[in-house]
Amino acid sequence: MPISQTRLKELASRSDKQIDYSDIPELDEAFFEKAKLVRPAADKRQITIRIDADVLDWFRGQGKGYQTHMNAVLKAYMLSQKP
Predict the structure, then answer these.
(1) CA 20 to 30 Å from 58, out of 23, 51, 65, 68?
(2) What pLDDT, in 10s, does the model give residues 18-71?
(3) Interhelix angle for 66-80 vs 53-61, to 10°?
(4) pTM for the whole thing?
(5) CA pair distance 66, 38, nearest whole angstrom
(6) CA–CA separation, 71 vs 68, rounded Å?
């Protein structure tokens, strides 16, 4: 289910002090030393694929760019399987 405009406005109005960052590690210089810029591949191919309805609905619910997001998830999985 997409987030409502009312909820987005409420979240945008919060100050940084009102946000709980306790479960998010701080990004220090060590993080940025290992960070890599990832750009979408230019070599895209159009295919037909069958996806479970609930999976497709969830990705579509994430908003514009959901197909790019699906591709990124698949690519991350693919890369995690390399020895």
Answers:
(1) 23
(2) 888 889 888 889 889 988 887 777 888 999 999 999 999 999 999 899 998 999
(3) 110
(4) 0.50
(5) 17
(6) 5
